[in-house]
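In this supplementary section we document a worked example of the pipeline. Step one takes a protein sequence of length 346 as its only input; no multiple sequence alignment statistics are reported here. Step two produces a three-dimensional model, which step three serialises into structure tokens for compact storage. The input and output of this example are shown verbatim.
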Amino acid sequence: MYGDADEPIDLDSIEIPDLSDFELDPDFEAHYDLLRTCREHVHQVHHQNPDLEILWIARKRKSKRAKPVKPAMFSSDAKVGKVLQQQLTWNIPMEISCLRPWADGGTIASDFCKERCYGKDWKQNKPETVERSEKNEIIRQRPDFAQLVIGAFAEIELRRIPRLGKVRQPDGNMEERIISAPPSLFRVHGIGDFDSERYIRAWIEIAKALRYTTFFAYTRSWRRPELRKALRELAALPNFHVLLSYDKRSGSPPLWKNAPTALLLDFDDRGPRARKDTRVVFRTQYFFVLQYGRVRNIPLPVMRKYDGRLVCPHEQRIKYDKGTGKALPPDVTCFDCKVCCPSLRM
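The serialised model returned by step three reads:
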């Protein structure tokens, strides 16, 4: 059951760890206070602008206590990981970001990317994700965009980091102390891309604040010279992994120390030679086989490597239901693999 958006939320009714009795590192204490401050700001904006649906509110039966289940501005992605592990995705409209023509007529997306974009099918197959991305576009134009993302994610983070638990001491006694929580993985742009320096710098601010979260993004924004400086700063952050995506028509990405590349193949599993800094290869054919079944009744062949580079484990092979013949999604997720986000802590 969902609560009314205009009904005030009692912040005190939403339990978060009480650290008042623990001696904290000053740096961590400042981080913890920032999350709490941004979280309160999000609750205020949520009630002032209910149409944005910044938070997803649920109520326990026979209880007046409100409990935000998760930030509504983030979407879940089965490829990234399980929702219960808090593996979330941020999306914005393609038409306004990667497909928008610039003054010189160019776009962030390459011609090949426009033709093969799986996001186009989401309008029919995932209308709720597209609708959410349109609301996110309004949110990201606000001057407090970074603070809203930090505060919304704090609804998760304040329950997870730090987490209180009991640890067995050498003498056999149990002692309560702060223990690490499972890591969280955040994909920026399942659909959409970085389209302005201001927007990129907002994500720099977000990643610095959410230091216990691992971010990753595949981007073609390197194709716009005016965005490269900010994008390179984003890639230099220890918890934000930027992969420069390219294909046979995009041109070659710049060579940056902290930004490996990702290659996108054509339908026939062919493409340009993989660069030495290519960390992962994606198969265009995979998405269409998974969505529409076998192409010409031919199963997607197994492909573990392309030109000596690893093919995304999620896309190496597809299992088929013996009864219906429909494609089944693989078991491996980004959270399991970690090739694109090696800093993800366990």
